[in-house]
Design a protein that fits this description.
single chain; alpha/beta; seven-stranded mixed beta sheet
């Protein structure tokens, strides 16, 4: 199965979750930054999963990311803003029909999140949700991930792979392409 887990990650938490989801999906799944996940790749996918951190209780805008890069001086490491934002990536997404799923990393008490915006943009581009969005919790503003979240991400990846396999009647690890 050709699956791509596309992510935006500022302090590494979302990247770690994306890699765990890809591991759970199977050996052909790839975790990719937004600039690695080209339109050509996405068009060939059997499954696209997208995730981002929650900033300002939402999916980050480019202005928010610029502010974080400029103002988060107490962060343990500088935020990685070298890749396009998830919002920008989703806005440039080609029309498609592949099954999709969304996830976010967040502090546990966040009143809103990023997954609704991700799902909305997928839907506008014609993609079909295959599973309920997932929320993975970070312990502090910059992380680390809460204990058990990476295993939960791997398990969700396995669940997504099973859903696609059942839906398409294909064997896991076999590309349709």
């Amino acid at each position: 199965m050709k699956a791509f887990v596309v992510y935006e990650s500022l302090w590494g938490n979302t990247a770690a979750v994306a890699r765990a989801i890809a591991e759970g999906i199977g050996p052909e799944a790839q975790a990719l930054t937004t600039d690695q996940a080209s339109a050509d790749l996405v068009e060939t996918a059997d499954l696209v999963v997208a995730g981002a951190p929650v900033l300002g209780f939402n999916l980050a805008t480019d202005t928010m990311r610029d502010s974080v890069a400029r103002d988060e001086l107490d962060a343990p490491t500088p935020p990685d803003v070298s890749h396009p934002s998830m919002r920008s990536w989703l806005e440039s997404l080609p029309h498609g029909r592949a099954p999709v799923a969304a996830f976010e990393t967040r502090i546990w008490w966040s009143p809103r999140g990023a997954t609704g915006a991700i799902e909305d943009r997928f839907e506008r581009a014609g993609y079909l949700p295959i599973a309920k969005a997932q929320k993975f919790v970070v312990e502090g503003k910059y992380g680390p991930l809460r204990t058990g979240e990476l295993e939960r991400a791997r398990e969700w990846g396995r669940t997504l792979a099973q859903a696609i396999t059942h839906r398409n009647g294909i064997a896991v690890g076999v590309s349709r392409g």
